[in-house]
Amino acid sequence: MISTLIDLLYPHRCPVCHGIVSSKGQLVCPGCRGKLSYVTEPVCKKCGKEVDDDKEEYCPGCRKRMPGFRRQIALFNYNEAVKSSMMKFKYNNKREYADFYIEELLRLHGRDLQEMRIQAIVPVPVHSSRRRERGYNQSEVLARRLGRRLKIPVYPHALIRTRKTLPQKGLGSAGRLHNLEKAISWGRCARLPGTVLLIDDIYTTGATMEACARALKKAGVREIYCVSICIGEI
Ligand SMILES: [Zn+2]
Ligand SMILES: [Zn+2]
After folding, report:
1. CB within 8 A of 164, min separation 6: which ones?
2. Model pTM?
3. What separation in Å is there between the alpha carbon of 23 and the centre of ligand 2?
4. Considering every ligand atom, which ligand is closest to the CA of 69?
5. Model confidence over 27-83: pLDDT tens digits?
């Protein structure tokens, strides 16, 4: 009864077509789920991106520059449906879409996450001016939702973006990473435990995640795992 009332008052919006989900208790329309591209095996053992052949241990990107984190789980491949969903989540205050992303993450990768024995969750930071503009950091919304579901503490200020990143276009991968390393640093917060999960909405070149992982390592974190809701070229 109460849940019916809540459904009536706050109907779930579908993260794909952005309409109201008609099936009771569902977070996505049945037809819309099929428009999303889920990451499937074989995947890169480091960043979780799909690879063509299961004999390939790592994707070309990771072979070129091996990330410093232990490994990553990625939920969706970047396609048009995912792109539109992510844009609304990030810029149009559709924070509720995090519910769907996190439930899908747990449904498909819950066991993997348990095996990581994560002790803390840290979101990838955005610059404070950007946070003011949008009213929230989308990665923090994801972190809080996941933290609540797994009962793991979230440290939203463990990492801070001290400056807006300079334009990355035209820079090689080393230049991008260097830029980001200067922009992301350890924030003022209590000491973190030894095993930390970093979470972000999108993983493209991996430079942002790598800069975050390096900042956590400098702060003494031993094991770093990552989650990205989607992965691929924008
Ligand atoms: Zn829909
Ligand atoms: Zn990879």
Report:
1. 127, 129, 130, 183
2. 0.93
3. 37
4. 2
5. 999 999 999 999 999 999 999 999 999 899 999 999 999 999 999 999 999 999 999
